[in-house]
Amino acid sequence: MTEKEGEKEREESKTFSEEFEVVIAIPEARKPGLVLPEDKMKELIELLDSLGWDKRTLQRYVNHALRLRKLEKEYHKTYTTLVRDYEKLSREEVKTRYAIQQLIERRRKIEEDLKLYMEQYNITLETTKKIISILEELKKNGLDLEDLDRATKFLKNLKDQKYDADKIILYVSKCEDLSLELDKINRELLEARESLHKIIQERENLDNLLKEEYGLIDGLKNLKNDIERLSAERDIILSELSRYREEVEKLRKEIEELINIKFDINEVNRLLQEKRDELEDLKKKVEALKHELSELIGVEASTKEILSRHRELLGKVEMLEKDIMNKESLIDLLDGEMAAAYSILKLLQDPEGGAIEDLELLSQHIQKLIKVKKGEAIAQKPLEPYFLERVRKTLIDLIMPYLKKDFVPRWVFERVEKELKLLSEKRVALEEEIASLRRSIDEKSKMETSRPVEDKKIEAQSILTAISPEGATVELKTIAEGKKARMTCTSCREQTIVNLPFESELEELSSKNWRLRFKCGKCNKTYDVPADIILKKIRGE
């Protein structure tokens, strides 16, 4: 570039500077590093000491803290509010768990009552079937309940007199056979007597013959032999007679026993009347059983209604099961409380689980809180939230070492998020009301303001556009990524903040002799500024 051209350009720049003023907002020099207050730095060092300067532990801690912060920003709720809502949900969960237990107990009782009822029903049904079968058998054999009554009374009397009913029935069935046997024995006895009488007559005849034919001596010898023979025969006959007598005596005793069993007509009628009375009692008992059965099932032994009632009970049981399934999701919340209780138990069992000072401080706060709850310390009633918060923080500080690796499960966050969505909707509605109130307050404050401040400079935002030498308009590519500049309109002296493109894009525009067009937001006057001038302002040339 020649000296003349340089002078010419300086003159144009000077002329343009007189017409339009461009001030580049150069940011202040950044201080090296991140400066934290001393107390914050100490708290950070204490936190790192508590985490053991472990990189992974710190990363997990930061990630969970960011996640909690994200939840707070997303649902516009503080950690204290989240904990309070969680405690409220925990109390509701305990109530729900108690209600579930009550329902389970009621279900168990209903099942037991139903089982007992069905057992009673089955027993009654079996008894009824037996009675019906007995009546059918009696009808088949041509008998009725009166015959059964008489037989029952007869057997009862036999048992009362200590007779064996089975043996008596057997003897009665064999009575005819015994009579025949006795007649047979009597006939044999008569035949034996007749044979004995014949033998005696033959003996007499023989004696007479001996006396007549052989004389006295020979007759005596023969007689002696005959007497011996006849004596032997007599002994045999007597032994048989004694045996027959024993059998006859035995049969006589049996017959007497059978005869003693027989009753007269009046006794039989009396026994029959007793059996009829017992049968009436049995009928009454059957009627009572039928009545009891009808009361149990609510109808007169109707099987269909029994089944319908059974189905209703099953439907109620299914409804209870559905309610239990719906409530089982709430039971999972107890896992978190159990884990917390386990941590507290582990803390109390561990000799090195906590410092004595921390435990004493926790005990003091709990004692104060108990007194306030009981009403013993009325003056400290306003401090109840403070004591509760101190107890909570102390417990968290004591339990936190045992929960470093066991953070809150994911389902807890999801549960809290669902509740937070509902609460967030209410919060948005309240924020809209607050915003409307603030707008009305701002409008009122503007109306009450006597006059605006004249020295106050209004800063508006305007957008630059690129103008080619031929007059074509093109939007800048990096308009929102570069630095910011404050431009002052020479006409109305209005200051406006504009976004500048990157230096690379400005160099490209300067090499093509392009200009940047600026429009004042107040007076709507436009200015075309060369790109190289803005580039020099940015570089401080």
Task: Please specify the SSE layout and strand pairing.
Blueprint: H1 3-19, E1 21-24, H2 38-50, H3 55-75, H4 79-140, H5 145-160, H6 165-213, H7 215-261, H8 265-297, H9 303-331, H10 333-349, H11 356-374, H12 384-399, H13 410-448, E2 460-462, E3 465-467, E4 473-474, E5 484-488, E6 495-499, H14 503-511, E7 515-519, E8 526-530, H15 531-539
Parallel strand pairs: 2-6
Antiparallel strand pairs: 1-5, 3-4, 3-7, 5-6, 7-8
Helix pairs in contact: 4-8, 4-9, 5-8, 6-7, 11-12, 14-15
Kindly describe this structure.
This protein has helices at residues 3-19, 38-50, 55-75, 79-140, 145-160, 165-213, 215-261, 265-297, 303-331, 333-349, 356-374, 384-399, 410-448, 503-511, 531-539; strands at residues 21-24, 460-462, 465-467, 473-474, 484-488, 495-499, 515-519, 526-530. By secondary structure, the chain is mostly helical. The protein has four domains: 12-24 and 459-539, no CATH class; 90-143 and 298-330; 146-283; 332-407, no CATH class. The strands form two sheets. The chain has a four-stranded mixed beta sheet with strand order 1-5-6-2. It has a four-stranded antiparallel beta sheet with strand order 4-3-7-8. A hairpin with a 6-residue loop joins strand 5 (484-488) and strand 6. The radius of gyration is 63 Å and the shape is rod-shaped. Mean pLDDT is 68; it is low at 13-20, 23-32, 261-265, 297-303 and 450-461.
